[in-house]
From TrEMBL:
Protein name: S1/P1 nuclease
Source domain of life: Bacteria
Record keyword Hydrolase present: yes
Entry keyword set: Disulfide bond, Endonuclease, Glycoprotein, Hydrolase, Metal-binding, Nuclease
Magnesium recorded as keyword: no
């Protein structure tokens, strides 16, 4: 996701934290001025380095949305394994500095795993090589989902935020990064996800905006459930 998607997920997850998880998040983030789950959600994109460049996505084999670690992430350098590793660090008795960094990765990567094209196919780099025209501009399918559809939403992000902010606390739940990636991939292979032509019609937006909203909301809910489980 782009910045607005990640920030929204951080904001919506924060209000679903249990008091215990919330106070530990606040304690870890207090070392940085004005840090909130929303404000730190984009940090992982700002520190992009060759070491972590592949942590933001996973590419299942074409036509098969399964995930197998040895086949799809042998070196551990993909979103599924990176997230599992960072959750383990956050859960551990590592120094606060290391756990704070892990928390920022977890906030970011749970979000990315829910962007369908972050579990798309290698051949077109998750839609990055699929040019489209949308809202009067040239872009590509990956950016359309990362941010263009969010920024151009009728009702905007505020309506989405208001609607989603009625969610209650998230029950602690074991994180399932591989399952979230498989879900994302299964959206990518649905009929019509890749538009018939290169022009994004209103009918595409009407069809896929509810899916986009559901992925953002799920990401927030699972992020909160993950933190409620990890920081109990
Ligand atoms: N970003 C860069 N390469 C990518 C890929 N193969 N899949 C998804 N996102 C990407
Ligand atoms: Zn992206
Ligand atoms: Zn990312």
């Amino acid at each position: 996701w782009g910045a607005e998607g990640h920030r929204l997920i951080g904001e919506l997850a924060e209000i679903q934290l249990t008091p215990t998880a919330h106070s530990e998040v606040n304690r870890l983030l207090a070392a940085e001025p004005d840090a909130t789950m929303s404000s730190v959600a984009t940090w992982a994109d700002e520190v992009r380095s060759p070491q972590t460049a592949h942590w933001h996505y996973v590419n299942p084999p074409l036509g098969d949305c399964s995930y197998a670690r040895i086949r799809d992430c042998a070196d551990g350098q993909c979103s599924v394994e990176a997230l599992s590793k960072q959750i383990a660090v956050l859960k551990s008795k590592a120094p606060d500095e290391a756990r704070r960094k892990a928390l920022k990765w977890v906030i970011h990567l749970v979000g990315d795993l829910h962007q369908p094209l972050h579990a798309g196919f290698k051949g077109d780099k998750g839609g990055n090589l699929y040019q489209v025209r949308a809202f009067g501009r040239g872009t590509h399918l990956h950016s359309l989902w990362d941010g263009v559809m969010i920024r151009n939403r009728v009702g905007g992000i505020d309506e989405l935020r208001r609607d989603a902010s009625t969610a209650g606390l998230a029950a602690p739940a074991t994180p399932r990064p591989a399952a979230w990636a498989v879900e994302s991939c299964k959206i990518v292979i649905k009929t019509g996800f890749y538009p018939g032509g290169r022009f994004i019609e209103q009918s595409y937006i009407d069809r896929w905006d509810p899916v986009l909203v559901a992925r953002l909301k799920s990401a927030a809910q699972r992020l909160a459930a993950t933190l409620n489980d990890t920081l109990r």
